[in-house]
Amino acid sequence: YTWSTGSYMPKSENTGSDANTKLLIHADGSGQTFIDSSPAAHTLTVGGNATQSTTQSKFGGSSAYFDGTGDYISIASPTDFNFGTGDFTIEWWGYNFNSLAATHAIFSAGDASSGGFAVLANTNYIYIQNNGDSIETDCGNAATSGWNHFAVVRYQGTMYWFINGLSQTLTGTGNFGTYNITYTGTSTIGTLNNGTTNPMLGYIDEIRVSNVARWHDNFMSSVPSSAYASGNYIDNMTLVSNSTTALTAPTQGRFMVLQEQPNPTTVVNTDWKAYITSDNGTHWDQVTLATEGSYSDNVTMYSGTATYTGTGTGMRWKLQTFNKNNIFRGIDHVWN
Predict the structure, then answer these.
(1) Is residue 318 within 8 Å of residue 275, measured between CB atoms?
(2) Using one digit for the tens of pLDDT, what is the confidence trace for 313-328?
(3) N or C: lower Cβ tally within 10 Å for the chain?
(4) What CA–CA distance (Å, rounded) separates 12 from 263?
């Protein structure tokens, strides 16, 4: 038999503008014409004097600038940000966030008192809040000046704050981890959704909102080093084991795999498929997998059998994915 362990994920950390990206603003244009580069391609409307400035930039030569007097970018009635109780990530690059003089609204999805939420920062803290819950961390953990990467993540009911890829100590009230995000109305960048409260003063760049948890562990070594690009991810993956020699030519094999269920959930035997061979890959036989049971951390075991078409003793297995949301933890191939 063969047994392989590890964490196999058919995507990179810098996943760009993939299907899970619901908003992506590069702010690399000119003037007040902002573009959503995500597949959702939301229409963005500017309020006040929000503009794209070349004075400061992390990537692309310009960034979004807000002058603190009611500037904002709005997205009308976007259902893409109704995350329910599921995973999400909101991230951006902020300039000199360690020295903010007041409370600034970074991103607001609807009314925080009615199913929505807001991400804000001030002199002391950076936090996400709704009507009753607030999860925060010390904004002073950012570098003393310049550009820093910020990300707020909800993963399987747990909240995380990352600054430059380092997970932060959290404080707060309530249980935002299970808060049901369902709202109607406008979403905004630069103020709360009324267009006036907590106006932003400063520069932000490369704003991305995703309906998946992009990270839930430290990622200091893989903080984005360039602007997110459309298609900058791996849609499919093929894993093929090394060859193991059987003592005699078998007729039937069993394949078992542990899979962590992503969000959205993928479909076994459709979004990902398993194959086995007894002749080093001359003939690959698909294994129809069925659920054997679920374990902690959203891990499910699948297994199935197949009759070998080929005749030989060169034993190998193969996994192919056709949907990027797959994470495999362990793989087993036995034969008789």
Answers:
(1) yes
(2) 999 999 988 765 677 8
(3) C
(4) 16
Residue type, 139: C
116: closest CA among 179, 183, 195? 183
Q: How high is the pLDDT of residue 13?
A: 43
Task: Give CA 279 to chain center in angstroms.
Answer: 39
Nearest in space to 276 (alpha carbons), one of 261, 291, 250, 254: 254
Residue at token pair 């061979």: 277
User: Could you say which DSSP state residue 241 is in?
Assistant: P
What span, in angstroms and rounded, lies between the C-alpha atoms of 278 and 114?
A: 59
Backbone phi and psi for residue 119, each to the nearest 5 degrees, phi listed first? -110, 125
Place of tokens 């966030």: 97
Pick from 40, 47, 42: which is nearest to 64 by CA?
47
**CA 40 – CA 62 distance, rounded (Å):** 23
The tokens for 272 are 């990902």
199: cis peptide before it, omega within 30°? no
Phi and psi at residue 228, in whole multiples of 5°?
Answer: -65, 135
Q: Are 23 and 38 in contact (CB under 8 A)?
A: yes
Instruction: Give me the percent of the chain exceeding a pLDDT of 90.
Output: 48
Show the 3-state SS of 77-144: CCHHHCCECCCEEEEEEEECHHHCCCCEEEEEECCCCCCCEEEEECCCEEEEECCCCEEEEEHHHCCC
Which tokens go with 181?
Answer: 């995000």
**Number of neighbours of residue 12 by Cβ within 10 angstroms:** 13
Three-class secondary structure of residue 3 per DSSP: strand
Which amino acid is located at 313 in the chain?
T
- pTM, entire model: 0.68
- Going from the C-alpha of 69 to that of each of 2, 31, 49, 126, 288, the distances in angstroms are 64, 17, 8, 20, 60
pLDDT tens digits along 213-234: 988 888 887 888 889 876 544 5
Give the C-alpha separation, 146 to 162, whole Å. 17
DSSP 176-189: GGG--B---S-EEE
Give percent helix, percent strand, percent coil of the chain, each to the nearest 5: 5, 45, 50
